[in-house]
Amino acid sequence: MIVFGCSSFPQMSKGVCDILGITEGNLAINHPTNKETDVEINEFVRSKEVFIISSGSCEDINNTIMELLIVIYACKTNSARKIIAVIPYLPYSRQCKMRKRGCITAKLVAKLLCNAGVNHLITMDLHHKEIQAFFDCSVDNLRASPFIIQYILDSIPGYQNGVIIAKSPDATRRASSYAERLQLDIAVIHGETKDEGEEYSDDGRSSPPPPCSFSQQIFCFDYPGTVPQTVPKVKPPIKVVGDVSGKIAILSTT
Questions:
Q1: Does residue 161 sit in helix, strand or coil?
Q2: SS3 (DSSP) at 227
Q3: Residue 218: is its pLDDT beyond 50?
Q4: Residue 169 belongs to what H/E stretch?
Q5: Is pTM beyond 0.90 here?
Q6: Distance CA 187, CA 164 (A)
């Protein structure tokens, strides 16, 4: 078994190797003046299991993905028996729905990883668990909730007087899960605040119907009256739904 760490998260690869009591694999990643990524594996990987640790929680996400793909492909061309990608935060996992004339970018990333040579993916808290179906390899979608709950139990005195607050109605499911495990009440923030990426949530169904063309007038004449216009969404002022007075607020943001 060999563990390689990409440049996006070197602390994690080093920590994993320290826990396992092994030496991190020798991997050289260079960026020439033309901004390309050059990878050189200085280890014998033939017929071995290779773990590649990377993360999408960095600023230069696109270069991180390209670097990861090149490292995976380098291991594949050097005849590694099995390639396991460890990606705690999967890049583009939030773009998993079709919106207007866009695309499902999460599926594109999944296909790129599989075509590069990934045989197994280990990740955490996918934005939607259905993203696992985009991959042509086995996927382990781990959960961070047990560690978060244990942190609340150990580090928040008097958590019994707390309340789990969902940052938006969309986050209610995850907040309810925490509240049930901790036996606490739940509250929801509802109003004009927008979640990250919410501007892309419109899939076109709320658009007003186009005016009838000449070829469609025969069908329009059969309709008794005018086509009703869709009422646009208007969010109310921000407010908290639930009782939070005098309680410890624990905000769930996912």
A1: helix
A2: coil
A3: no
A4: none
A5: no
A6: 6
